[in-house]
Amino acid sequence: MLSRLFKYAICVSALLHYSISSNAQNIPKGLSLEGSFHFGKALKHRDYITVDMSNYVYGAEFNAEFETYGKKHWHQRCGYPRWGIALSYLHYGNNKEIGHNIGIMPNITADFFQKGNWRIFGRLGVGLSIITKPYHIINNPQNNIIGSYLNNITAFRVGFGWRVHENIEIRPSASFTHSSNAASQFPNLGINVPSLHIGICYTPNPIEKTDIIKVSKDSLPKHNWRPQFSVIGTIGYREQGTQRGPKYPVYTFMADAGIYITRNQKIKAGVEIEYLQSTHEFMRHNGGYGDNLFLKSSLVALYVTHEWMFGRFSINTQAGFYVSKAPILPWFMYIRFMARYHFLDPFKSKVAPFIGISMKAHKAVAKYYAFSLGVSF
Description:
The protein is mainly β and 377 residues long. It has helices spanning 2-21, 73-77, 277-286, 293-296; strands at 31-40, 57-67, 82-91, 100-115, 118-131, 150-165, 168-180, 191-202, 228-239, 247-260, 265-276, 298-310, 313-322, 333-342, 352-362, 365-376.
């Protein structure tokens, strides 16, 4: 199977090279096409996982990537990141019980170090994927790790870039890929795959050092130490305990304050109030919890957040600690990852509304995805 994929990849690469090279000057500057193969093994992170995960995992990815070079004010401030969108494929080595993972992942790449033709980079990709053999009570009861066809796919990747030719870069790397549905449909233990990559990247019209637009530090927007505030409302859904059972909404309100620690990074602290309707219904049906079930179904937490800005887009990592005395407390803390798009550049505008999507997790297990609407000022 691997040799067949490799032969196909060589043929496709040759055709792409032939068709693109003749029209290289018409290709947008900085557009790169990367093909990569990866090889790893899924982690059995719970003792009670019943699906067979003993075989190795292999896969392939095709990524279209755009390198920034200073056309917008934030490119230089953020170290000229690369944007991409990838088509990914994973074969879990168990066609009967897990099947295949076919996904699409928008991604962003940042260089940690660069010298000559060498660079060290990190890449984050987040998107959607289809797992072809999820749990089914009759047809596939052994798969107690994934319960839905449609899932989130998140991949972290760290690697080297070695430019061996004007148009070609070799990219060996290591990655960690997670797929789950964040408890929107049980079971939801998630599939975690560490793997090794080898990629070949072709850039028809590369960006050279002379193309990079740089301005003096004095011309860049000044570091603004003014405190910035945010208010956010979110809504998410999760299934409660029973496969194909009812789905309940989760409502959250957050308010925080923070400062820019660099021109494109913020540290914030705030308070969160979360209402879980599933907890409310559980206490109402089981009894013995007294009155004020709305308050007892709400959790209050204090949190800190790191926000990394890329123009109007931002990536947020949040750690929260519960301070409420709710009868049903899931754990003492949580982790939340968020992606936001601001309608106005928050570095330039005093008021910047935004939309976003987030994932909340306890003990490395995703609890739910949520859509958010908020404003920073």
